Amino acid sequence: MLQTADKIDCFSLPSDESGDGNTTYFDVPQPAKPLRVLHLEDDDQDAELVQTTLIHSGGSYVFTRVQSREEFQAAITNQEFDLILSDYGLGDFDGLTALRQIRRISADIPFILVSGTIGEEQAIESLKSGATDYILKTRLARLPAAIDRALKEMAERISRRKAETERQMMEIQLRQAQKLESIGRLAAGVAHEINTPTQYIGDNIMFIRDSLGELMSPLRLFGQLVQAARDNKLDPELLDSAEAAIKTADLDYLMEEMPKAVEQSLQGVDRVTKIVRAMKEFSHPGAAEKTKVDLNHCIDSTLTVARNEWKYVANLVTDFDPNLPPVTCLPGEFNQVILNLIINAAHAIGDTLNPQTSEKGTITVRTRQDGDWVEVRIGDTGSGIPEAARAKIFEPFFTTKSVGKGTGQGLAIARSVIVDKHGGTIRFETELGKGTTFIIRIPISSKGERQMPVQESNQHIQGNSHS
Ligand SMILES: Nc1ncnc2c1ncn2[C@@H]1O[C@H](COP(=O)(O)OP(=O)(O)O)[C@@H](O)[C@H]1O
Ligand SMILES: [Mg+2]
To answer: pLDDT tens digits, residue range 74-87?
Structure first.
């Protein structure tokens, strides 16, 4: 006779069905190890019947039998099990309650109801609550197969989850890698962008230094002239040398050029400041949570840091909605999407340019509010997307570019950021030989947030400005 909460070791021949040769699952019982079964049953005869049925089926089991709520509680708190078998009605306790308790702790452990009385409705109810299966005591022969199936399903579930976790990890790593890669290439571009104004600031300051040197002599003579005039001792020799000094210094020229040099230097400093600020805004370090941002400004910063990527092939036309309300988004990730689309647009234009003529293409970036949504359009006058590629461009690793130019990650990341992380959409319109426009739509706010208009620049053209 079986005792309450008694452990009975029942080693029989190792089952050849419990393992499928796949031994990588971390918490799936191995064939060599006996299956640890928690058996909730208040009838001694039934308990014995169930356990002997299993032993005779050829498996290897360690049973822990419990009969009441308290014993069940104690067992699941203190021990680990591979499987739970439970009667349906148990005096003041019942299988369904036991099932709900265990599901709060573990979603995976197989739970099979073994009952003499279970009706169709109860059976459905138990499956809804997370039972793996139910077996009538009159049909106990089905039990070993049901256990096998339950264990296999659990193994599959765990391995699916593991694969999904691995996929997510890989996606995060890829995104990180792409971000690093683009920051690397942007850094080179930004260095170049900063180098140009820094150079002419330096040239201008050297010009101002030399000019000041040339001004010294006339200024000194000017002082002597004033003194001589006051003392009434103005002699022609002093006048002659003052006149000569003015001529030598070419005062007219200096008076015209020096203010220009100062002005240009200040513009250069402005330019450097703008680039550095844009770089900071582009990367948005630490903005892991959605924040309300001025999307026009975000896009403008991204265009500035990416300028070296497009300026040789395209003029840029921005057409920003001046009344665009702040948009709730992940600014760092959103900027990465804009960057990916701009680089693609520049590549598509670059492919079609005639090296003989210096004519550039056009990239147009447009923002608009459309009800509760914001729409961003990035259009290019490039090659267009060939029919055969259209269905694949959002797939990870799909690229038509040479190694070093493309990795096929740009649009896959764009879709994941826009669709999965912002609940938006991304699509494109394309015509071979004419160009492509990518259209992004994201909701302006998450939940009925107040919307305030933002002041932003209207249409303006970049790309022909100094470089
Ligand atoms: N604006 C565009 N014009 C033409 N083709 C494009 C454009 N954007 C993307 N594509 C096509 O989609 C492919 C995938 O783009 P993407 O995911 O950014 O990867 P990558 O740019 O590294 O190739 C590109 O190789 C290109 O063939
Ligand atoms: Mg790309």
So the answer is: 999 999 999 999 99
What is the distance in A from the centroid of ligand 2 to the CA of 317? 20
Question: Do you know the residue count of the chain?
Answer: 467
Among protein residues, the one whose CA lies closest to atom 25 of ligand 1: 399
pLDDT at res. 18: 42
Distance (Å) from CA 385 to ligand 1 centroid: 8
Answer yes or no: are the C-beta atoms of 232 and 290 closer than 8 Å: no
Specify the CATH number for the domain of residue 50.
3.40.50.2300
Q: pTM (2 decimals)?
A: 0.64
Tell me the pLDDT band of 286, cut-offs 50, 70 and 90: low
Residues 291, 155 share a domain:
no
CATH number at residue 464: 3.30.565.10
Burial class (CB in 10 A: 0-12, 13-18, 19+), 372: exposed
In a domain, 214, yes or no: no
